[in-house]
Structure formats: structure tokens, C-alpha cells
Design a protein that fits this description.
By secondary structure, this protein is an alpha+beta fold. 40% of the residues lie in helices and 13% in strands. The longest helix is centred in the last third of the chain and has 20 residues, at 254-273. The protein is globular, with a radius of gyration of 23 Å.
């Protein structure tokens, strides 16, 4: 049973006055913690509960909220106190009543997110590890973004998947993707302060229509990683995206990097919820359209991209019938550092024959059904046809 007396006494101690709330009101939503509102007249606070072993998760969340607040770019709930009460850990936060999104609120959220991302430091990572959902998220500092993403994000999730029994093709192709991270992520981003778990459920608007962020998984990284997640599940309007890009335009090649960054969250959901999560609807489909030669961003031909890179251009293989032919549009963009080698790498990892219905595709094999189902989902995320 929750020791509310201990929790309310701790809240009273940090807020500087008596706090005698009525019965706690449970809130719906969330799959990691239990949530309540405590109200004493006009005073109220928001309390999260979990097992005592989860105290570190609450400490990391409070530190992340403090980092976001220090940037003075967008409102976040202020941490009040945390600790253990009996066999439970708790985190008490400022209670912010939510209203509805008003006209112009989405644009303001986009502008404020861009302002948050202007907060930078010299290295990628953070001063402590934290959590993405309930999954540990390592944040060991690095001066190289591709190495950080390879080791602290995709590599870590692939290791978790292997430990949970998702090996075989998933592991093999995952390792090939890790090898290509330097080619895919060579656009030299600044280490920006990120929310880290920016799906629509972690953005709301207060009663005056001002945007509020919460439930962060903070670190310093490529700002595009935050933007990528806003597109994974939807829920952010066109005004949000337009306002962000007006405040801070994106570099060429974002569409590919977006889908690569979202693989981290896809793998995390696989590790959290198991194979049942593989039915995720509506994944991004841009990479498939690009590789199949359909018009993308203003670009250059495959041959020209190959010449810019130098060395062996794997897109010139005789068996690469699934790739665009000479002279077709390249969605990379004329100023992009990406090469068709990088695009081909993602294609090769997603499936041997690229298209999910191809006879040679790993998706049609029966030797490792669990790995095939996993890569079917991952493949859909980066390459499903429209």
C-alpha cells in the first residue's frame, strides 16, 4: 500500500508549507509508472509511482527536466522531490493543467523546439545515463556523432534484442548497418540538447495554449533525432514542422537519417513489448520510393553520386535490379554528403532481395521466423512501398 503520508510530508518539506491533500486521483495513460494528482485546495502536484528499484529512473527524469528548464526555451514541469516510501519510489512534479491546442500553438511548439536545440555543448551524450521508457539508455560522451549513435543507440538496442532471443538475421543485418553508420551520418551535426523521446504523447498545451514537454530522455545529439520521432507516430501538425524549419532549416539527406534514427525507437519497442509490437501501422516509406527511382528531393543521378564518392560503387552491381538505373533521380540532394553506397547499404540490410515480396527476400524464409518477422517490421519502417 502506498505510504501517502510519507510522500505528502516530503512535498510539504520542499514547498515550504503544510500540504494536506484529499484522496489521490489516479490518472490514466502511460505504461511504465502509475500517476496521481494530489490536491490541497488551490495547490496541487503530480506524483509518479513505481517499485523502489526504479528510483534511479525518477532521478534521471528529474535531471532531464531540470536541463530542459535551464534552456529557457519551452515549459516543462518542475521537479519537486523524489525518494522512496516503503517499497515504492516516487517522483513529485509541478502539476500543470492541460488545455487544448489553439490556433498557432503547433507553430509555437516548433519554434520553441528549435530554440531548445540551439542549446549545445562540445560533445555528444550526457553527464549520466538515463532511460527511454523503462529501457536503460547509455549516454557515454563522444566527440563523434556516428560512433555515439552506433554504440550508444542502435548497437545497444541490438544487443538487448539478441539477449531477448531476437538474433539470426536481425543481428547479422544489424551489424552490417552499424558498420555503415559513418557513411550515413557524416553530416557533422552540432550536439544539441534533445528531449530524446519526442512522440506526441510527451507534448501538451497548458490552459493558455503554451506548449509543455515532459517525460524526457535527455541527451546531447543530432537535433534531427528529435524531429525524426515526431514523424514516427504522427500527432504533430504541419504548422509545427513548418515553424521548426523556418527557425532552423534542415540539411539535405534528412529523410534518410530520419528513418535511420527511428529504427532506434522501433527496436526499443520490440525489446519492451516483444514480437507483438511488430504490427506497427503506417511506418515511414521514403527510402523505398527513393531506391526504386521515384522522384524525391531535387537531386543528382546515381552515376554522379557514385563518382563523387569514389572507389567501389555498389549500386553499379549487375544484380542490383532493385536500384534506380543510370540517370534516375537521386533523392539525396546536390549538396548532400550521402552516397548511393549508403542507400544501398540500408537496402541490403533490410532484405537480400530488397522488396518484401521478392523470392530472395529474407522476409519469405522460414528458417528463422522470429528474426524474419522482426526485419519485416524494420524493413517496412525504412522501405515499404506506398
Amino acid at each position: 500500500m502506498t505510504d501517502w503520508n510519507e510522500i505528502t510530508a516530503r512535498i510539504a518539506a520542499v514547498t515550504g508549507g503544510p500540504f494536506r491533500p484529499g484522496p489521490p486521483r489516479a490518472l490514466a495513460g502511460g505504461c511504465v509508472n502509475r500517476a496521481f494528482v494530489l490536491r490541497d485546495g488551490e495547490r496541487a502536484c503530480f506524483v509518479k509511482l513505481n517499485g523502489a528499484q526504479r528510483l534511479d529512473m525518477f532521478e534521471a527524469e528529474a535531471a532531464g527536466l531540470e536541463a530542459l528548464a535551464a534552456a529557457e526555451a519551452i515549459r516543462v514541469p518542475a521537479p519537486l522531490c523524489m525518494g522512496t516510501a516503503g517499497d515504492e519510489a516516487f517522483l513529485a512534479l509541478e502539476y500543470i493543467p492541460f488545455g487544448t491546442q489553439r490556433r498557432g500553438s503547433g507553430a509555437e511548439a516548433g519554434e520553441r523546439l528549435a530554440a531548445l536545440h540551439r542549446q549545445t555543448q562540445a560533445t555528444f551524450g550526457w553527464h549520466r545515463d538515463n532511460y527511454i521508457g523503462s529501457t536503460p539508455q547509455p549516454n557515454v560522451m563522444s566527440g563523434d556523432w556516428a560512433s555515439f549513435w552506433r554504440e550508444m543507440r542502435l548497437g545497444y538496442q541490438l544487443d538487448l534484442a539478441l539477449a531477448k532471443g531476437f538474433g539470426g538475421h536481425l543481428w547479422e543485418r544489424g551489424q552490417r548497418l552499424l558498420e555503415e553508420c559513418p557513411a550515413l551520418l557524416d553530416h557533422a551535426p552540432a550536439p544539441s540538447l534533445l528531449h530524446g523521446d519526442l512522440w506526441a504523447g510527451n507534448l501538451a498545451y497548458d490552459t493558455s495554449g503554451q506548449p509543455v514537454l515532459f517525460d524526457p530522455a535527455v541527451y546531447y545529439g543530432d537535433r534531427e533525432a528529435d524531429l525524426a520521432m515526431t514523424e514516427l507516430f504522427g500527432g504533430f501538425d504541419a504548422d509545427f514542422h513548418a515553424a521548426y524549419r523556418a527557425a532552423w532549416p534542415l540539411a539535405p539527406g534528412y529523410n534518410l537519417r530520419r528513418d535511420l534514427y527511428n529504427l532506434y525507437h522501433i527496436l526499443n519497442h520490440l525489446n519492451l513489448f516483444g514480437a507483438g509490437y511488430l504490427g506497427l501501422p503506417g511506418p515511414p516509406r521514403r527510402v523505398h520510393r527513393a531506391l526504386c527511382g521515384q522522384p524525391g528531393l531535387s537531386g543528382i543521378s546515381r552515376d554522379e553520386a557514385g563518382r563523387k564518392v569514389g572507389g567501389v560503387n555498389r549500386c553499379d552491381r549487375s544484380d542490383a535490379a532493385h536500384l534506380p538505373g543510370p540517370g534516375t533521380s537521386n533523392p539525396i540532394g546536390t549538396r548532400s554528403p550521402f552516397s548511393w553506397r549508403a542507400w544501398d547499404s540500408i537496402a541490403a540490410i533490410a532484405s537480400d532481395g530488397w522488396l518484401p515480396n521478392s523470392p530472395s527476400s529474407i522476409f519469405s524464409r522460414r528458417t528463422d521466423p522470429m528474426a524474419d518477422r522482426t526485419w519485416r517490421a524494420v524493413g517496412r519502417t525504412i522501405c515499404s512501398p506506398a
